[in-house]
Amino acid sequence: MDERYLGVFDESKDPSKKADPTNQRVELMLGALASLILVFILGMVIFVFLKGLPSFTGNGISWFGAGGNVDEQLTGIFNSPAEPADYVYEIGAFPLLWSTFVISFLAVVISTVVAVFASIFIVEFAPRQLEKILEPVVKLLAAIPSVIYGLIGILVLVPWISNNLISEEMRESVRYVIQLDGTSILAGVVILTVMILPIMIAIITDSLRQVPRMWREGALALGVNRYRALTTVSLRAIRPAIVAAAVLASARALGEAIMLAMVTGSIGFAPNPFDGFLFFLEPSRPLGATIVDAKEGLSVEPFGETMYAFAAILIISTAFLSFAGWAARRSLARYSIGSAK
Amino acid sequence: MKSSKGTVLGLLLVCLAFVAVPTAAQAKPTITISGSTTVAPLATQLAKGYLKSKAGRNKVQFKILQGGSDIGVADVSRGRVTLGMSSRIPKPSDPGGIVFNEIAKDALCIATHESNKIAGMTQGQVQDVFSGAVRDWSDVPGSSKNGTVNVVIRTAASGTQDAFDKIYMAPKKTFSGASQKASNGLIEQQLERDPLAIGYLSLAFQKGVHILNYQGVPCNLRAAKSGQYPGTRPLFLVSRGALSGPAKRWVDWIRNNKQALNIAATAWVPFK
Amino acid sequence: MSSAAAKRRKAAVRQSRRNAGPPKKIKAKGIWSIGDRIGVVVAWVSGLLLCIIAASITLFMGWKGIQYVTWDVVSNSPVASLEQAKTGGFLDPIIGTLLLTILGGLIATPVGVAVALWLTEYGRPSPLARFVEAGVEVIAGTPSIVLAIFGLLIYQQGFMAPFSFTAVGGEVFGRSFFAAGAAMSLIALPFVVGGTREGLNSIPKHIREASYALGKDKASTIRRVLLPSARRGIATGSTLGIARIAGDTAVVVVLLGASLQISPEGTIPGLDVLRGTGSTLTSYVFVNSPAGEGNAPEKAYAAAFVLLMIVIVLNLVVSRLTKKGQHVWG
Q1: To pair with B47 at 20 to 30 A between CA atoms, which of A293, C22, C110, C239?
Q2: SS3 for A2?
Q3: Domains of chain C in sequence order
Q4: A180, A174 Cβ separation under 8 angstroms
Q5: Distance in Å, alpha carbon of B269 to nearest chain A alpha carbon
């Protein structure tokens, strides 16, 4: 009798490994397509970097510095003479980098805390009906386009901040430097937090539910209350997932351009943390918003190259974040049930 | 899968073939215009008028984009559009080979909130306020308000901002912390709701705000036409090299045709 | 055990008891310290805050939408004008949104399915597969504004002229529905890949083995068995991607040209629209808000409401698709 039916499988007769031309052709085609995508992506990254290179080389390390008014420098670059030899590249992008960092960092930190507590609520304490409502609610919040968040921000939040949080004394105290009109870091952080919250909640609730019941029940059996059982057992177990969620959220926060362009003020100003509460009320402009504001001027060579330099910084940051997240997850993976992905 | 893949590929090739066929045999030439948001409403109305008129009916198509005078100049100098709209005069740093063709004039008025009824300002006073030297309304003569002056200007790419700098501010520079808005409409909105704001607007935007006299002359169409008002600036359609073809015909129509001049006269100072 | 050792042991126990101090009070089951109570309160507050935020956003947009959405506004084309009342409607942006999402989806779905297929079914050599996975993740993490200006870079090159139009001076304009659609497909790609992979991975091994046992080779197994079964995953992925495309503004604002109305380019019906410029609901909202040049906030609200409805409907489709219950593999 044929040996196949006796459970001894003859590798050379495995149809899925048939060295027949159709199979090979299909595999080659699909593989080529996938590699093409890879080449395309690599090409994109390299292209952006090459295009932005003149801006970096034209400035050296002072590209990251804070010399001078960024807006004036950008206007200067935009008005460069038409001769390539006379292109102006001078820029000190620190205010933009600082703005990007502050807004993203604050948003991610606040969002992580709120997301963890909200997930604890959803998984453990919410009444049945509320839990059923909250799932689609989170999905809904994740689906709202950023321009709508921006619209609500600029038509509701910004005037509210301007009327209720900014007093005349505050305006007086900075009047020689900047004007406060409601577009601010606060507006940007609040809306950005709301935007990235759903991503984090979705990932964290998913992972919380995947923690084996036995672990929590063991803690409960030892006399620990529900909340403490959740935090000391489940939360610690899903630490890689929390890191993964935070990384995803940071990437989203860094890349958010349209909403921030609408609510943070469009002025290349580096708010001073030593101003106290005023720090949150001062306008600024993160990198993504700068590129959006500058979109029409990209055809002017040196100006376009400066924008590509900004894009390169964004790509580096998101890549670095992904890598850091991967490294963090690996080191935490020993103590837990595994990452969320 | 393979047979359907083949038909899909075939269809794609056919489509590409169609697209690759030179589209030089177009029915109507297109005039693409980009640039100043101040000139855009004027250009739109002139385009509509031209298409309705005997001279222009069925002769051309118009495509009007915005972005700011500087963008218009950059686009046209690189040949991306047929004409650029500019609300500022040529600068030495402008690319070579472009020609600024004037089609109308506009006046820039200094404006404040309705409750802030300042009769007028001199150039020195305007410079003080807009450069950030004077920051409190109590230091501004003629104003009954107290509090921080909220200066509202246009964005850097705007020709109106350029014109304002040249006509009113030179040699001083505008306050770097001023609020920047992307269009006349937005400045108007800010002036309508903020009692402590001051800014500048094109002649057409007079509703709901208080317009100041400048150097003693009121800012209205008559003063602008007669040349009395010092704050006028020309509006241009910029072309790459001398005007030619359908673009030339349109600009000639704008400058000479009575209908066109009437359209311009609604809110601007017409060419003739 | 010798008595000396036993004595030592007892002494040690006595010593440790002395060192331990008074016996610690054992927390009875369910007793909550103050920290825990605060934690629970914060959890409740966060959860309710979430509900309140979602409810207020939806209700607010609904209220504004009902105020400003009229048949006129949905069926007329936008017009540039100084006054808000004369700026027409947003029919062209609606068409633009639909056009762009369909175009992006059409490009992303076959490519995404092919990549996902290769990753799950073949995936050799393995380093290449890891790189492709990483590449898709890079696209997923790249900000859409960066994808947009990269698209501009490509589409403004001379050889891409058929995809937009060539201006009078000989420069390629580089902005058109084609350009924006291609960039949008990049945005949707990771979703399609993820959804397809999930769909394929959820097919148990024995289905594949049964197919091979019947003598089918790999290619036809994929075509006839796996892909049809993975349909739900593919549909989920594409719809998620399309919903994401519908909501994206950065790509539209950079790559679609800035004309209010759809301006076709060329003479071939259909293709001329794709080569031309236009706007979508997202760019319309952006331009008409106080951040853009239009200054027509009422129209912006109305357009935002319509956009929100479209996105919600798309997401409802996704949840219906995933909720239909997992296919029971017998």
Answers
A1: A293
A2: coil
A3: 59-78+86-324 (1.10.3720.10)
A4: yes
A5: 29
